[in-house]
């Protein structure tokens, strides 16, 4: 965990990679990988922070904002729409200005 003033960044790191079936667009495999590489680590992190809060741990005193981050040693493409558009081309997340 990293703290800066009233903000806390909590990071959960896992040594996991996506399964071969996920690379070939198996919906069930993609959902399982999403659960084990994103949902479960964030849930685990949330539960540990909840325990710290219940213990009234000093690390959380004065914290107004908590940011959760799950990281993995492998590549996990969660924002695939960003890859579909060439650099500079209009895409779903482009700024109209």
Task: Describe what you observe in this structure.
The structure is a single chain. By secondary structure, the chain is an alpha+beta fold. The chain has one domain. 33% of the residues lie in helices and 20% in strands. The chain is built from 2 helices and 3 strands; from the N terminus they run E-E-H-H-E. It has helices at 20-23, 27-54; strands spanning 2-4, 7-14, 65-72. A 3-stranded mixed sheet has the order 1-2-3, covered by helices on one side. A hairpin with a 2-residue loop joins strand 1 and strand 2. The longest helix is centred in the middle third of the chain and has 28 residues, at 27-54. The protein is elongated and about 45 Å long. Residues 91-97 have low confidence and may be disordered.
Can you summarize this structure?
The chain contains two helices and three strands; from the N terminus they run E-E-H-H-E.
């Amino acid at each position: 965990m990293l703290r800066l003033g009233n903000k806390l960044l909590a990071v959960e790191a896992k040594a996991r990679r996506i399964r071969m079936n996920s690379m070939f667009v198996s919906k069930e495999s993609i959902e399982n990988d999403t659960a084990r590489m994103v949902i479960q680590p964030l849930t685990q992190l949330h539960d540990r922070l909840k325990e710290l809060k219940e213990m009234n741990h000093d690390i959380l005193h004065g914290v107004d904002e908590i940011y959760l981050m799950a990281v993995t040693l492998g590549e996990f493409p969660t924002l695939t729409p960003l890859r579909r558009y060439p650099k500079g081309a209009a895409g779903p997340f482009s700024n109209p200005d």
